[in-house]
Amino acid sequence: MSLSIAARRSSLQDRFDTWTPRTLDAWLDTCAAEFPERDLVVTDERVLTYAEVAAESRRLADGLAALGVRRGDRVGLLMANHAEFVTLKFAIARAGAIAIPFNFLYRTDELRYVLRQSDCKVLITNTGFQGLDHAGMLDEIVPGWDSESFSDRAPTGGDAPDGLRHVVLVGRTGDQGRPDAFTGAALAALGADNPGASEGAGHTPDDISDLLYTSGSTGSPKGVQVTHDAVLRTGFASALTRAYEDGRRILFSLPCYHMFGYVEGLLSATYVGGAVIMLPTFSAEAYLTAIEKHRATDMLCVPTMAVALVESPLRHEADLSSLTAILCGSAPAPVWLWEQVERDFGVSEIVTGYGMTECGGAMTLTLPEDDLELTSSTVGRPKMAGAAGVPGSRGPDDVPVLCIYRTVDPSTGEVLPEGAVGELTSSGPTTMLGYHAKPEETAAALHADAAGTVWLHSGDLGQVREDGYLVLTGRSKEVYKSGGELVMPKEVEEVLGAHPGISQVYAVGVVDDRWGEIGCAVVVRAPDGDALTAEDVIAYAKQHLARFKVPKRVEFLDPTQLPTTATGKVQKFRLAELVAQSAALEGDKS
Q1: Pick from 318, 312, 310: which is nearest to 294 by CA?
Q2: Which of 71, 105, 365, 439 could form a disulfide bond with 380, CB atoms 3.0-4.6 angstroms apart?
Q3: CA dist 22 → 204, 244, 348, 400 (Å)
Q4: CA distance from start to end of the chain
Q5: Model confidence over 332-389: pLDDT tens digits?
């Protein structure tokens, strides 16, 4: 007989009544000792147990150490959700290095920038992904990367990532490969020839484990520095708040370069000896098939995925009886969607949440026992964290929470009265250490109060209700989300502004019933650009931007139609309103 939500949560609290800080690799070894034969990673290609992941990560860590990787070195992972991502991720931790899971949708210039800015020493990559030629990009960025002499090359200066000394190519079935490249198999063989090379790396739970790139409101992407202990606390808080049962099996296609898949999926599952069922890409059919094939009990998605799932004809044919829970986040969704998911899939535990990479991932969740109206009208409350939470804190259930939220005046930073709408700020043990090599941006995001408590400014406007639940009311920054990914308007504008048919361009995020939020490019045509169409703009964007940054909508305005201040500055919030009104009119006509 299955345990109640309260009983499952109580069991987890009892098991982890004291929080013991660990490194990621030490935690993996603890889990492998307790659940050696249980599945940890499930894909259509491979299934790996806890013991197998631990053993393979140890061999790969020894290989990295033999290459010269030491504590604090940065190792990049340019790889989709394949089983080897997990073994390599833990191997990097075991070697005492910092993992940089790069966005595998990056184009050449984007990849060049993050490789250089992160001072990446070793890059582990697949040949490509869905038509993106990563090997070809590297030919442009660091010519000769696949030669034996690459590690000894002389610095070239400029925007080249001169710190990169080794590239490890992990081939996949059907890849043409590079005959002279150093491969994943060669890395494992090097580790086998140097057993124990990674022992004594000297890293601690408070060391940086991950450098996760996220877009900001201005400038280039920023590398968020989080610790081993921080991401493990967040993963445990997810398991506790959602009341995981023993052996939960979590399905997701959300990439592990993102906190969603990495923490809410991979790390949280380990607290109950569970498994992750990883898909490299999303389709409703792939999700539904995987639920039946691998007996998934839980799945992670964003609202666009949920809509596709309820619209798929396959939902009537697939055996979904194993599924009991869903976490759907990253964007707001109407209550009718949750009700349809509950009705069509027979799922009773539906939750949503909110957070930022800078916080350490999702900091709030609704509870699986909450009414669906809360799932639609709020983004949840700070996660229950028990022994892993803020010392002395107490949530509505008298359980310590993962972080504390309060609002401040977005202009002055003055703390506002309880319940007042303002900029959301948070504090807790999972907050980032700062942005890598960006002291000014770090200083703008993190502020210490008179008591020495560090508060992170979110850039989001919202309210902390009397019951502890958060309500989002807007963004004080201009960034928006597309497909669950943050998009930096300035980057889109700079790319599209280079098109000869475009005189001015402004990228804004607008609410969309199906997608939650989409990117829209508001374009003023050049004097000789009358023939420019929305399709032309989108096609140009697809050539130069990662897929999630490509606007889903294009609106054309005359210069006189742009809403401006008295000083001539374009008001983007009014642009967003104009786009929303235009979309509403089109919907009425249809």
Answers
A1: 318
A2: 365
A3: 7, 21, 34, 20
A4: 51
A5: 677 888 899 999 999 999 999 999 999 999 999 999 999 999 998 899 999 999 999 9
